[in-house]
Give the backbone structure.
Amino acid sequence: MACELLGVGRLVLERGAPLPERRWTRRRPPVERMDRLCGVALWAADEALLQADAALLRADAALRQSDVALGAESTALVLGSMCGCHAVDEDFYRGVLDGTGASPRLFSYTLPSSPVGEISINYGIRGPALAIVEGRTAGLGALDEGLHLLSGGDIQHVLVIAADVSSALLDQLSPGAVTQDSAVALLLRAAPMAGAAPISVSLAYAADQPGVAQRRALAALGLPEIGAAVRVADYPADRGAVGALDAAAGIWEATRPGRLDRSGGTLVLVTDEHGQAAAAFLP
Amino acid sequence: MRRAAVTGLGAVTGCGLGVERFFARLLGGGTEVRHLDGLRRRGLDIGPMAVVPGPLGPGDDGEWLWAPSDRVSDMACHAVDEALASAGGPTVAAERLGVCLGTTLGSKSPWLGALRLLPEQRTPLGDFGYATPARAVARRVGAGRVRVVSTACASGNAAIGAGLELIRRDLCDVVLCGGVDALQDFVVAGFAALRAHARQPCQPFDVRRAGLNLGEGAGFLVLEAAEHARARGQRARAYVDGFGVASDANHMTGPDRGGQGTARSMRVALRDAGAEPDEIGFVSLHGTGTIFNDAMEARGLREVLGERAQEVPVNSIKGCIGHTLGAAGVLEAVMIVRALEEGQFPPTAGHKERDPEIELNVVAGAAVSLRPAAVLSTSSGFGGINAAVVLRPGE
């Protein structure tokens, strides 16, 4: 799929560390009222938009002229998250358990799709929006879905985001799954322009057989095996769904345009213990 | 472009196990919402709700709403078993068999159970989270592809859309498209906090509507490439021909009052199906029974159908089985397929007197005989996400 990577936003924080101050590309969203997952996702999304020099969307005014203009209805949002909104689930449920009260504000964030809702509201984006929550492969799964939306013709831009946050409880129940609060956002445009680097993503599943799933994912990319000429990228495995998408974004940023030689290239490969696999290949 | 046929159906709802029990109850205009003694005892009686009866449910009094066991995977597996059996058990290579599941809660009960323990009592959990019920199904059927989507209460329609995509992209020949959510005290407390729950059975589109009733359930469609079904002699019970999703960009819990978001999702679905608005002969609306949702949907439908919005029959199934959250869209699709087959579309349980500001032709009191050329199904959820599906009759 030939498309253009317009901007990447990244944020990695220690658990509970405050969101860094930033000059938001449009009016400052009320991140202090949001849950942590929304906060990190919004921050990374804004950074991606800033980098892309995208036109700000305003509900009641004309688009600002820019090199890249986001159409409200032709822009899609796709989020991938491994653990979703578990942190705010815990905050909300503690209020239920300890009698301090069930907070309606917190409850409104107890959905893994909350970040795409907040991004939609704060940037006036009215196109498709969804959250993919199938485990550690969800970041690359979101990229796959984003690429597919671009290929249809109606959608001109996609903001693909991966976000996951940590907690002490998650450390106990799923050690090592997510140890930091992080997000990565990629702003993509359908653009078979000169220099647009193709990227392919495939996903597969084989119950409790990660090796079989991996082979299926590679076969779908036309890579029956990982040859010596293919570099397999490292990525932090303790950032939930974020690490792999972040690695893919980094390689894409560094990929020189015009290279279509499939005898080489870089592979980002994710498997989990349940048998889910995802692969992204950048030639 | 490959066409997606529905060849099988499965359902677990407040009516019990099975599609026929569910559809019969809908046709009769009955309701399964009731007050639960377990909630009364714990001071959480926010109103009647529809829970799954029997061993897959939370108990007659709802006491198991506090249990840490994973009911949601069991519900999903039961529904998919029925769906596959009714589809004649299609044989397909693992790589060509997919599972697409929509859910808002996933397997949350083990997590909540751990939270109720003291820190020193907690141990690592095995499989838990949003993907757990999808993996339970995928493991059961030997699927080679799993997608789990969560778009709030539009998750069910989003799962159907994801399955349609896999068929059209020629990545799968058969996709099990499902939606599932099981209630726990967590979500009951949440809707109590939002004051969105009605103290009596909900009344979609009614002038006296006062909120929603929670429900739970699981629904599955077997979505199969039409040529694949034909080759094995399986008839198409219906076709899923279009899907559309769009955002309100308005508020996290309140819909766009003008219905623009849901209207956009309907238009995208119609265009995707190659259908004109005039082709739509019935609409299954989200119809939660809240003041704002029902009014919003009426405006949105009018945007799309124009004057015909006052004539085209519509219903909501939530008066019967409550709001099943991530399962809602798929259970509506199950109802639609059965209705297309029978030529009988169920009434809206709980609806007695239409709100004059909701200028819709609400089917109420008794089922209506129809043979529509196409049916639209809509869902809306928190975060302002709207999703619509277009279905056409099968063979």
Summary: Confidence is low (pLDDT under 50) at residues 55-67 of chain A. Residues 36-52 of chain A form the longest helix (17 residues).
